[in-house]
Amino acid sequence: MLTAGAAALLAALGLVSPPAAGAATASTPDAFTETAQQQIAALQAVKAGRSAAESKVDSKLLVAEKGVAKQLNALQSGAAVSSAGTVLVDIRASKVSPDLIGSLTKAGAGIRAVSDRYGSVRAEVPLNQVTAIAARGDVQRVEQADQAMTARELATPATTPAKTETKQQKADRIAGELQKAVAAKSQRSAAAAATLTSEGDRAHNADIARQQFGVTGVGVKACALSDGVDSLAASQAKGELPNVDVIAGQEGDGDEGTAMLEIIHDLAPNAALGFASAFNSDASFADNIRKLRFESHCDVIVDDVIYFKESPFQDWIIAQAVNDVTADGALYFSSAGNEGNVADGTAGHWEGDFVDSGKSVGKFAGVAHNFAGAAGNQIYEPVSDASSAGVPVTLHWSDPIGHSANDYDLYLLNAAGAVVSFSQNVQDGTQDPYEILQTPLFGGTGLRLAVVKFSGQNRYLSLSALRGRFKDSADGLKAYNTPGVTVGHSAARDAFSVAATPAAAAFGRPLEPGDPANPTGPYPNAFSGSSKAERFTSDGPRRVFYEADGTPITPGNVSSTGGEVRNKPEITAADGVKTSVTGFNPFFGTSAAAPHAAAIASLVLSGNPGLPPSEVREALINTAIDIETPGRDNFTGAGVILADKVLAYTGASPQPLAVAKQPTVTPADGGSALDPGDTAKVTLPVTNEGDGTAVSTSVVLSSPTPGVTVAPRSKSYGTISPGQTGVNDFTITVPATQQLGAPVVLNARVTFAGAHSPTTTSFSLPVGTPSPVAQDFAYAGAPVAIPDNSPVGASVTIPVTGVGRASKVTFSVDGATCSTDPNSTTVGLNHSYVGDLVGTLTAPSGAKATVFQRNGSSGKNLCKVVFADDAAAAFSTVTSANAPFTGTWRPTQALTGGLTGAAVDGTWTFAVVDAAGGDAGSIRSVALHINGFVQPPAAGAPSNVRGYTNNGPVHPL
Fold first, then answer.
1. Model confidence pLDDT, tens digit, residues 67-95
2. Strand partners, 794
3. Global pTM?
4. Which of the residues 491, 582, 689, 862 has an alpha carbon 20 to 30 A from that of 430?
């Protein structure tokens, strides 16, 4: 509905206003039509008349809130308003406080992602509450949610409406694939199991490199960020992937991450793997980059995502996170993008200095940019009809992030000269130098872009139609393209920006009708100097004007002669390869290229542990096979990398990795438990998980627990071959004063001849005889609703008293009568889509354990289900067919041990987060079941029992 103020505004400025000077009745290259002038004048009036709070609101949201767009011919507000009247926004704040979250919730917001570090909240809010939220003093800006896309190149062009798979359809498909994989696995032997291997393994000579150098990724953890890992369980059941360390709650939505992980595993089969979603929000993406390094300890990180707000001219929060992890020694690989390049005529990118066209715009202020420069006067950039559907168009300029005092606006017009879409935020000293709009969902004919300087100084501009193309129009507009569409964190100084070249068959469709044929790859041969880049791969270089903190690189010069030029992309790798993931066979795009490069880097680190990142960079670039233009070029970098050449450059050798495994404890008194005052034999296995033989292997076993003695302190394990285990015995003595239930901690430091030496593993040995009797502690409160798709989640507390130390912890979701009715009040946890949920148990000490993690797909309700560490099957194996979920299952993480390092009396918390949209439920009835310890026999126990040690040879298991 049009507000009274907006109606008055349009009455004054709308169709009765005379056109501004220079307005044309029809569109010409150097003038706006009368219609466009009137539209822009009305929009500028909204901008000029903003209140202080409205100045903090995204222009498209404000126009939608005021209802102005509905009254302007052909104009779309660009705000994605749901049928419920809500919009997805990013709220940028000075600090994310409980008061802010509470205020948003009170205003009807659904919280989607929260970043304390970056002061950002993503929320679904009522459109009519946007300005009120912006009026808060701690809110700096309310923006339309920053959107992202992966660098996967789709076989179906964007102009073809895609068949949307519902949440239930996807769940059914994935469940079917998992069941099929499990059935196939049970019918074949391990030796007969056949898996798919990326053609990139052969084309990059990675197969030869593994054989020649004997390295497989051992000792390296490689982690990916993308949309999601929906089919992870199915891929594992097929034998395509091993265990993957997925950050709880960051499983995401989609399967590009699964496909990327399969590529890494194909080339570096013994590298450990990890994953986190990049799609919760831009700030969440940055947080997850840091988590993968600093919490999950990933050595190599790769992503295939670009957020539209990422600046080409300064490292924003995502690039800053990349800088943080590379400064800590991680190798970071990112897709260069599929936005095209000037050499192939496939890009929609122009950057350069603002040129005053002399054409004033609207009724208030503004002058249009002249794209023709010295060659003439053209205020439009024409968009190709064939690449005009749903294209995000970004405008950045060379002001520092958060401190733009020069105000530029962006408009999209149709062939008739009417404004179709716009972006005209306020920049008056505290905002970002950024505007964005999107072309119509189904494209258009004769669309063109205009950049208007509303106020301020001339700046260097970057205009990008992401996955679109600038192309001469039928009515005489000339397209202006420049290199440099690669932007954002892939252009961070120490990141590797990765271009794409096909490994096998050509990409299956022309990018636009009439385009030349796409190149084919060399498979089953290796890449060579005759290989060609994909025609869609993005080009560089990237000009940057500011350091991450906003310090000018060339103070006083933010024009085309200033700043720093970064040579991006650096290297090229394979795409168009096989994976087992539905929809990703073949897998095209720089999304597929980046994990190939990351996997080769993993092989390098595996054969050269501790090799400095600078030397890895030198090896990748110096050994790359030059393709396309002779010498380094701006869309393939140094060329395509070959694993055998890289490893020959660095040198590589198979490394042993000897690791202590869980010991067996045998008390000398013949008892079943280690008690205070006991002497016991500790049988400690050491397994060589590496590629090379572990020679001169020895173990130093020590204990930080006061009063505990270990004899002997060290033992020789001799030589342990890859995959083999050696065993030795030690003797420990526990002081009689050891508190019942307080564990004895053993630290096993394993040394051997190899770069991974030493490895240290800690073990916690329970002291005391576990009580066979469990004490029960239940949540006694009212049901607690679980907010849909919110990291805030829901939680209940369970008080525990009178236990002291625990020998065993189990957790149950109870209920009286079990059913699959999602509204049932008689189950322990009702929810219409259990696969959305992540459940976490927190002990009074603060220790946490994940109980379940996005398991069960579309199954409904948990009822009379027990989570116990000794259960035969893991809850991760359940499917929707098991609903309602009952019985006994292993939790995602062990409950005993991790949660029982300290006394368990106090308040426990069970929390549930719904990590996907569209479903609801409540926590109703849950309980803890905790076993303590029994007192050992008081007197009469044997004394002076002589410890037994074995100093003989290592016995293989």
1. 765 556 556 767 889 999 999 999 999 99
2. 912
3. 0.93
4. 491
